[in-house]
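re the bet — no i am not wrong, look at it urself. input seq straight from the record:
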Amino acid sequence: MIRYLLLCMIVTMSCSEKSSIKNIKEGTLSINGSEVYYRTIGKGNPIIIIHGGPVMDHSYLLPQMDQLSSDYQLIYYDQRACGKSSIDVDTSKMTLQAFADDVKLLSDSLKLEKPIVFGHSWGGLIAMKYATTYPDHVGKLILSNSIPANHEEWQEEQSYMEEQITADQNEKRSNILSSGELQSDPASAVKKLMLLSFENQFFDTTKMEKLQLNMPSDYMARSGKFQALAPDLVSFDLYSPMTYLEVPTLIIYGDNEPATAISAPHLMSHLADGKMEIIKRCGHFPFIEQPEVYFSIIRGFL
């Protein structure tokens, strides 16, 4: 997931709330100098949901993830400079540590004591950084299809994914890049490029139609903000701090992901209280491809 989002980057409480009968609330919070959008649904033990990306928003997790709201309060938020959150951010705070701090400030603003923390893809890295920085402020940790805990393994996985790109996919990508659409309608072009890159991250590509991607019209400007994050992305290594983490941790991957052979066993070996589940006939989006198995695993862990 993150590989193509970074490519797209290169080519480039103050709170108002609304509620409904489904216990849905949404609004913005002033967090670490940035206006951050959040949405909550359901009642019960709180789960902070950290979306993938960078530069995406939480909406691609919907509506599938909402089914957990029958038993839990789900707290979605759009990371700084993403989705419905403000693009006006201090780029000096575009660091992995700041993204983890945002989760803590979100939790504090909503008066959550020890929330369950869920991170998907890039969000898994933020979740690991949060849990190792604030271990007393997380009840349980769920790392769903997370990028690895260090940059070397992440680069190895990206290299593997590059090798899976077919000649036809390369041609389609070249056609999009040369069409001029990236200049005339960047949001549309980026969406096409992302969907193309996600083809190899599904076991069954017929299910890709259920993946909802919302691209803001100012996507390129937002992605530009994330270039300040580049130094962290070529140097991160959380394996040592993860060794000291005593929080119950669930790791989930699809059997069609390179992480099952490259990084997942390594991460498991560093966890004091870890459990790993590999879902068959599934790729990077198990909540779409194998929802019954996926949510059964999560509910069993919780």
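see?? The chain has one domain: 2-301. told u. also Confidence is low (pLDDT under 50) at residues 6-21. so pay up
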